[in-house]
Amino acid sequence: MADQTTDQALTRINRDLQERATQQRAKDLNLPYVDVAGFPINPDILHILPEEAAKHALLMPFFKSGKKLRIAVVDPDKTETKETIKELEGRGFTLEVYIASEAAFYEALKLYASDQFKLKVETKNVVAEEEIHYEKELENLAKLKDTIATLPAEEALNTLHVSAIKAGASDIHYQPEESECTIRFRIDGVLHEAFSVGKEVYHHLAGQLKYKAKMKLNVTTVPQDGRFRFIVNERKIDVRVSSLPTEYGEAFVCRILDSGKHFASFAELGFSGKSLEILKNAEQLAQGMVLVTGPTSSGKTTTLYVLLTQFNKPEAKIITLEDPIEYHLKGITQSQVEEKQGYNFANGLRSILRQDPDIVMIGEVRDLETAEVAAQAALTGHVVLSTLHTNSAVETIPRLTTIGVPAFMIAPALSVVVAQRLVRRLCSACSTERAVTSEEKTFIEKTLDGIKSVDAACTVQLPQKLRQVKGCDACNFTGFRGQMVISEVLLVDDEIEDAILKNKSAPEIFALARKKGMLTMAEDGLLKVIAGETTMEEVHRVTNA
Ligand SMILES: [Zn+2]
User: What is the Å distance from ligand 1's center to 436 Cα?
Assistant: First the structure.
């Protein structure tokens, strides 16, 4: 007992001596001193620097006010300390450096292990859930421009991200130019400028963005990928960040992956008529392949996710292999390919099949190996969902043969092929009517005749008027709000299966599918133009007609 008291007393004396020596050292260095072990540190501040980095640099943040950050360092001349100081300055902090003793530093470092620190999750953002019009949000952002310059980079970024969510943006683009950096939001597939920031603010935002996404801060000359998560209204939102070195600095694109996103039904996506019927019936499939085709940004992933949700029942085991995982779905095992580690679609799919799934989704069929394993799985009691790059539904068949899959495998494996594009939806608040031109009349009549020749039940008449874009507050004067799918859906029934087996040409198979009522994307689009949902120009734009 006596020994213990003596030990404690000795420790205290040693500490006092060390603190006094440190005070003297601080005076010599002309820097302020802090007893960082005795300082009431708010654990939130520790999130500025991970424990490993703090230990490595013998540096600890201990007080923050706006952009001002006080840090305690043991040795300001230590290389790692200098590097970390530079990094923090790069993230936009104005630093005040204090000298602390080594003993006090390690004592304070214990705070990283505290419950208070661990309990702190990401900043919780609460956003009113009433409908928020993005043009108002962009207006607010433009006003925020000046505020953002005064905020610490972390808060500035957070403000930007919350605004992007409110505006319904899918991506945030940072484009550095000679004297400033332009920040743009992609909304409904179209980029809108939010505002520009000066070079200095941009550098701080970029530093903070790279730090959050766990990218290498000192690397600026090669592209990097990273990811981070933040929370809005209890919803976890993943942000995928990619950087690209450009003439005026690194450009960034942040893809917002909202895991709480509600996946609309096929009808809400824009599927209608026979296409909708086939997709709704797809959930009855016991085995077979459902392929969704189209170019990049044609909404393929969303259609696949809606299919997945349709299959998602307690008795079904669903496994996905994605690149990357865009949305997290409850009740579904999702995995991500890691090409660098040799985990690709083909061998990943083989491993997945050993897990005895009922339904498998593979991000994309790119090569023979993947196509073969996928077809085999579809023939042996699994439903396989995937995407492919082709221009039309029927083209999928020659594409698979070109890859090297034999017709005798394609024919029985393939069940449904969806080809799709996205068109912008006319803003219902402002679109106006106009007369149909005589040129359009001829075109519409011809197309309607084509539609009626495959679908006898179609009663759509040549319209006298069509709707056109105008532009209002609600649509940011673009005339459009939201997007919708135009599609053609091929159901592979016995007759089509037989045609594939007999190596019939794509036009022959197309003619056969027409007999069974398959409309083309352009025809589906025209019906939506007549219904006043989109414009002729939109349909032509995406179908290259
Ligand atoms: Zn409008």
Answer: 21
Residue 429 CA to ligand 1 centre (angstroms): 5
181 bridge partner residues: 176, 197
Q: How far is the CA of 468 from the centre of ligand 1 (A)?
A: 11
Structure tokens at 313: 């029942």
Ligand 1 mean position to 188 CA, how many Å? Answer: 14
The mean pLDDT value for 203-209 works out to: 91
How far, in Å, is the centroid of ligand 1 from the Cα of 445?
Answer: 29
Q: Are 486 and 420 in contact (CB under 8 A)?
A: yes
Q: Which CATH number characterizes residue 27's domain?
A: 3.30.300.160
* Ligand 1 center to 479 CA (angstroms): 5
Q: Which residues lie near ion ligand 1 (Cβ < 5 Å)?
A: 427, 429-430, 472, 474-475
CA of 472 to the centre of ligand 1 (A): 4
Which residue segment(s) compose the domain that 76 sits in? 18-119
291-325 pLDDT, tens digit per residue, is 999 998 899 989 999 999 889 888 889 999 998 88
pLDDT bracket for residue 545 (50, 70, 90): low
Say which range, 49-53, 204-208, 339-343, 385-389, has the weakest mean pLDDT: 339-343
Bridge partner residues of 386 (DSSP): 291, 362
- Rounded to the nearest angstrom, the distance between the alpha carbon of 432 and the centre of ligand 1 is 10
Here the CATH number for the domain that contains residue 311 is: 3.40.50.300
* CB count in 10 Å sphere of residue 134: 22
Cα 422 to ligand 1 centre (Å): 19
Residue 435 is assigned to a structural domain of this protein: no
pLDDT for 77: 94
Which of 67-71, 211-215, 431-435, 479-483 has the largest mean confidence? Answer: 431-435
Residue 463 confidence (pLDDT): 95
Residues 224 and 284 in one domain: no
Residue 190 forms beta bridges with which residues?
187
Number of domains in the chain: 3
Domain-embedded: residue 135: yes
The CA 483 to ligand 1 mean position distance, Å, reads 14
Instruction: Name residue 432's beta-bridge partners.
Output: 468
270 in helix, strand or coil?
coil
* pLDDT tens profile 459-504: 999 999 999 999 988 787 889 988 999 999 999 999 999 999 999 9
Output the CA angle 15-16-19, nearest 5 degrees.
Answer: 85
CA 33 – CA 167 distance, rounded (Å): 47
- If you measure from the C-alpha of residue 388 to the centroid of ligand 1, how many angstroms do you get, rounded to a whole number? 35
Are 235 and 189 spatial neighbours (Cβ–Cβ below 8 Å)? no
Kindly compute the dihedral angle of the four CA atoms of residues 474, 475, 476, 477, in this order, to the nearest 10 degrees. -110
CA 353/CA 356 separation, integer angstroms = 6
Q: Is residue 6 part of a domain?
A: no
SS3 state of residue 321: strand
289: CA distance to ligand 1 center in Å? 40
The mean pLDDT of 16-34, rounded to a whole number, is 92
